[in-house]
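Quick board copy: two proteins, each given as sequence then tokens.
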Amino acid sequence: MHKRWLMPGIPCLLFLLAGMALLPHPGLQHDELFFFGPIHSPDSSFYDINLFGSKLVCMVMSYSGALKTWLYRLLLLLLPANRWTVRFPALLMGVATIYLTWGWVRRIAGERAAAITALLLATDTMFLMTDLFDWGPVALQHLLLMGGLAAVQLWIAKGSRRMLALGGFLWGLGMWDKALMVWPLAAMAVAAICVFPRETLRRVRHGAGIAAVAFAIGALPLIWYNVAQPGVTATANTKYDAEGLRSKLPALKRTVDGSMLSGYMVYNDPVAQPRRPRTGLEIVSVALRRAIGDHRTNWMLPAYGLGLVLMLLLWRTDARRSLLFLLITSAMVWLQMALNRGTGGSAHHVILMWPFPVAFLGIAFDAGAVRLGSRGPAVLAALVAVLSLQNLLTTNDYLARFVVNGGAGGWTDAIYPMEAALEQMPAGWIGTVDWGYLNGLRLLPKKPFSLFMPDPNPKDPMFQQQVRATDFLFVQHTDDKQILPGSNDKLREAAKQLGYEEKVIRVIPDRNGRPVFEIFRFQAIGGGGTEK
């Protein structure tokens, strides 16, 4: 019994510890906090329903529901809002996904294949970082997908209609959470028909009604929205575009090899004003990176190549159908995102293929070891250990660069001192000029700020009032840190036409000491300089 729990327990613990090491470093990013918008400003929700006289947030975007908003509304009633309360629950969702994946693979391929899958998934850098920071969002998608799949597998094994209903309900919740759940669901349906045609048709005849009803209950808010706004989720977000197919291959490659977030979430070397490591963990992480050198990529690309070769060698074995199911599912998920305009070019889309590619490797490696006979266990242990170690070194590379270089772009840790400075300044309203920090200013303050996004139109009476009011403050990135280049100049030019200029009150640096934000108000041109 203890050995059985160790198999998923060790990978889950590795994943948890790695996530906790990374968690504090990047600043809270706007999309990571997208769920919080309707909590702070109920009118900002995309679609509401009236239930017994009360307004209930239903959709946050046309393809993203308010499930995470509901969950965090309850959580933040009990706990203070900070990086730990935002990220640690998402990290636990990743832990649960690993456990569910282990259980599912164990049922279809055995203990050893499940253990390999769990270890490779737990050490996968992109799976860890996309779940932990969850700007996709993807953590609930993975959890609900695998929760539903594990339940359906139990129905197949034991005939439990309750498990079938649970699986359908969880998949419906996943569709409401984010309609991109359709990618893996459609992919699994295609793969099942291709690989298990008779079994699939028989199961559909016996369970389609129960699954459909349960699915509809889980997805009810999404269905309600698409009845009120006929089919808008599909029509607004599905645009076939085969021309971008080739350009999306690098994103697939870089997600597999772990390098996709370099330069986006963390600064690459070299940087101005590198920070010295301080804690014991930081010192060890940075020393390890210096000792082994740059390690932004793992060895998973050749591992998948080996997996495909093994599949051909195992074609006449019992593993063939499971491997074919996982390969078709993975390929179909990617094709759906790659053939749709605006998707498939980022890690948070590509990672929605997971955990199927990793399960493919786990089963292929296990079955391949059987073919090697007595040498198989030793070769398998060495292979999995090397791949897992390479994954962990890639994760450490990110950690060391977070420590020394700091979070890049919208992930800057300057969000924290900037918010603290604003809490000390009297202001009626605070305007956010650039993208990337509005939701941070919604979540972090102890007392909510009155926030707005200025529209730099000098002919607009509202903009004229915002510029002329003495109790209005504005926050912008420094010119070299703008996420939407030109945002600062547009505002300055519009204010200049009204006879006003910026008066910078405070410049906010990140923890490396690099200026990132400027807090300012407007004054009549020639009225004075920067406040000290």
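And the next:
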Amino acid sequence: MDVPVENNADVLVRDLGTGFGSPAGLARLAAGQRQKRKVQLRMLLDDAAGIERSGLAEAARHVTDEVLDHPNLGVWLTHCLRRLARPDDGDVPLWADLGYLGWLRAARFITSRQAGSVEVVVRDGAVMLPGLGLARLAAPGTHGSATLSGRFEFTMGDTRLLVRDPGGEADERWLPLRKLGTTYSTLRTIHLDDLDPFRDLSDPYTGAQPTAPPPRLTAAQAAAWSRAFLGALEILRRQYEGYSAGIDEVLRTVVPLTAEPLTAEPMADGVSTTSPHAYGAVTMSAAGGPHQFALTLIRQCQHAKLSALTDQVELQKPSTVSDLYAPWRDDPRPLSGLLQGIYAHLGVADFWRTSRREAGARSLTADVEFARRRAQVRQALLVAAASPLLTDAGTAFVTAMGRAIRHWSSEDVPGHLESLARESSAGHLVAWRVRNMTVDVTGLHERRLAGLPPGPLPESVVVPAADVPAPTRLPVGHLKLNRAAGVEPGPDTPASDVAYADGDYERALALYTASPDSPESWAGVALCLRHLADEETVAALFRRPELVAALHRAAPGDITGLTTWLAT
């Protein structure tokens, strides 16, 4: 009897589907990224042949695995390949952009203490030596070349810059790349990169682009980042070993978006992203402390691992359609985005699950957040598993993630928190459907006016995201969960939402129905009626809220009467 032999892709998918990834699996991800960049570099060399002054061909002869592992190399390769297709785009000459590989070679030339000198491109008045720092040799907008000698001296015409102390900040012409710390298991130095012109500051999930790079951190600010990072590594090592090992393997650079935390609340969500082109880099706003830093590293390294996996394995059939529900988003998501969100939230939920062991206020917050995230991940896995776009590998990946969270079911959460988490999830889905789905109720409205039963209900379709208004306030169901964690509604919270959070459902319903003109108001109506009416009467508000909202717009009136009619 022949025994089927598993291919490497099947093994890798199941391995990463656990949420962690074995050392062998993580090594395969890194190797895949190197191979991807080798292919991109070969394409770049072929397409850029004949472009003078860049030193690209000479630098390419010195490429090593260490160079290929540099996070911003992937960003630079992608940027240059796009520029070659549109060479006149941008304010920087193409040949100057192509000089980045020479910068990487020059950085290795310095760190290996070689004799002699190398030529480097001066782009926008500066030379970046990845891993070392940035030299300002001319005014911004200046493009040319310079010589870098083995004694760490730059020469550009009459300008000379001797870097006596690579880590020193006494000379404003030399900006050292600061170090955050060293990982535990790999002993790799992690840099705080607020210098590299090719670091990716965009948000891959929204397409948002910054208007200008964030300013250089002060030495004191960089020291605060380092303290928070080292504290995060200690937390990860002690409490999150499965994620800690993966972070140590993946992480090479942290790119700051802000110098200071966005809020005084230590565990409030900051802004963080991971570029699919910059494997090894995490871009984030300043953390409120070590715990938030640890959570951000878990979440973003999950994104990095999945992006690297999808470079090697097709988890879905090609599609750019965004029509799926993600419990942590207000907009429709493509399947690829939903899978990314699930994989990241595996780590987020696990972070809070483990944090529940701590005593005091943090334990209460962890109970609330774990209840919330567990409900969201369960719901999202059902949505993903039902997608016809999944390949066999994608189905195996979703199955592996579902298997990985089974032990969560046995985790005891205070009963009222579990109930609040389910209520919050139900309310978010109501608002999402009202916001993002449309339905033609012309025939249904005519049947109601004629006193006829509803009959077969019309299908709903997802509205393109560009046509959907952004939410204007916190999801209604979140208010009770937040209050359970000690966070009271803010001063701008509508009176209807406050009444709902207080448990005054009759008053809240009256306020919501007085003007049910927003998705959040419809969520409030549904959640209040859930407490005031029987389940069958309000079922339509949870199954097809967009249909109820459309019928109510056609003929405003008694919402309970409308849902009762639909129940027939």
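Board note added afterward: The two ends are 57 Å apart (CA to CA).
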